[in-house]
Amino acid sequence: MVREPLSRPANGPKPVAEATTPTTSPLDRLRELVQGQEWVKGAVNYDEDLHFSTFYLRASCVPHTGRLYPGYTGLVALYEGFNEHYYLLKDECQRTAVAIVKKALKRPEWLPCVVYEIVRLSDRLKRLFDPRTSPARLARMSDARLLALYERHATAQRTLYRYARLPEALDRGVSYFSTYLMDHLRAQGLSAAVADETFAVLSQPLLPSVLAQEMLEFEEIVAAARAHGPSSPGPADASARVRLFLRPELVQRLRGHQEKWQFLPYHGYGRRELATLGQYVERLAEHLHNPAAGDTADMAGRYETAKQARFAALAMLDLDPGHRALYEVYAEIGAAKLHRRYAQLRNFYYLDMLLAEIADRVGVSEWTVRCLLPEEVAASLRAGRLIDPALAERGNGCVYAVIDGAEVVLAGADAAELGRLVRAQVRGRQNPAVLKGVVASRGIVVGPCKVIIRADDYREELPKGTIVVSESTDPDLAGLLKRAAGVLTEQGGVTSHAAIICRELNVPTIIGIEGLLEHVRD
Q1: 3-state SS string for 80-140
Q2: How confident is the model over 80-127, as pLDDT tens digits?
Q3: Which of 210, 282, 438, 463 could cysteine-pair with 239, CB 3.0–4.6 Å?
């Protein structure tokens, strides 16, 4: 565990009135900040709402980071439709990343302990909801029990994100961490080409991420099906009839796989169903009749090769304990992020039921509840009504902002104006003629691009040689990524979801390409 005293987190940043004078409105102060300083994109999150994002946005700000690391005093998050775009002050991104690296160098055991805490708290989050939770069970709870469950959930998320946001700050907005490690290799006397190759070796995952685990375990079932036969009568009947030809033990293995991994494709906005046994049967049929559909045969062997290559690379370098620990923890950070993401997908399945029940008792739509801050949700449930009717206006678009460490939520015309100001400021500093990013998985590929944000957006077979273009890569895209010739993403550091899974799949990938989706069209 991280051996560091933790300051008690507040329910939220201090109210904006404490940070402004009576003659300065929150909007005026935000205009001043936006127009007077350089802002960068923190992230774009599809299928996101104000309620949940408050947990991770607050966790990155000064009142909550405490002694762990310097946090942000300025932040602007825009909510339009079901998507969130948030922006940070560039100098604060740089200052925070530098401070984390300096602390990690001084205390080599510290960052690995933070990664351990992320995994531990993610596992605790998975146990928060009783697996028997259902809309009917929630409906039978008293208001007091429902409120207690909601508050336990809120506490668990705040506790997790206190640690989970720390490693993400290493590359958020400025890609500092990856650049620092590359520069340090060059400082060791390596040429640019050798440094690139060495960094690729040092950043390669040594153990399967949760996404790779699912693929490898499914391939074991496919291998067993091939070994025991018979398979379905032909490719045309594969999806519909393969179940008739499966031995009982194979069906049981598929059921076990479903129970373990059924939350992986879950999205509470476009898809509120878990993966079914029938979907895994169809996937098995596809693999049986098209061996290339799996294409993970050499994945398991790459981890052992990666271990040997990293050992040799570290032995070649003259690294002090602090820098050696940074290179060793690098890939673990990405794996911990994916571990946390899957824990949260499971959590979202039950949280969505909980928010729907709270909305019923408050007498508003679920979307209205999703546009409330956590403390507003709790207060409305206690009151049995929306505590302020004006809060419903956020459903048409709003802005969550942190000003000098204090927060404010704007809706209506004020939110629209601030959104235009921030986007104009960030866009004005970009070079539209140049698209550049960071190599996350090395390789050379040429092919047509296909923009895919969610797996549900693309149901057809991905043509061979296709380069997948996306904002980022959530777990539901894993099936498409393993068939892609290459991957390009607009956001993400080298420890992002896309970077980790594409390195595991050995798919050439470039990430963090600012303005990518504005310039690439199918």
Answers
A1: ECCEEEEEEEHHHHHHHHHHHHHHHHHCCCHHHHHHHHHHHHHHHHHCCCCCCCCHHHHHC
A2: 988 999 999 999 999 999 999 999 999 999 999 999 999 999 999 999
A3: 282
d(CA 511, CA 193): 19
Are the C-beta atoms of residues 41 and 425 closer than 8 Å to each other? no
Closest CA to 174 of 271, 91, 290, 53: 91
Length of the chain: 522
What three-state secondary structure class fits 399? strand
**Cβ contact 467:450 at 8 Å:** yes
- Of 24-28, 29-33, 419-423, the range with the lowest mean pLDDT is 24-28
Q: Which two tokens stand for residue 468?
A: 């997948």
Question: Has residue 230 got a pLDDT over 60?
Answer: no
Query: What is the DSSP track for 235-288?
Result: GGGHHHHGGGG--HHHHHHHHHHHHHHTTTT-BTTTB--PPPHHHHHHHHHHHH
| Over residues 477-481, mean pLDDT | 77
Checking if the pLDDT of 193 tops 80, the result is: yes
Average pLDDT over residues 319-337: 92
Q: Residue 459: count other Cβ atoms within 10 Å of its Cβ.
A: 6
Q: Provide mean pLDDT across the span 8-27.
A: 50
Strand order in the sheet with 467-470: 438-441, 509-511, 486-489, 467-470, 449-451
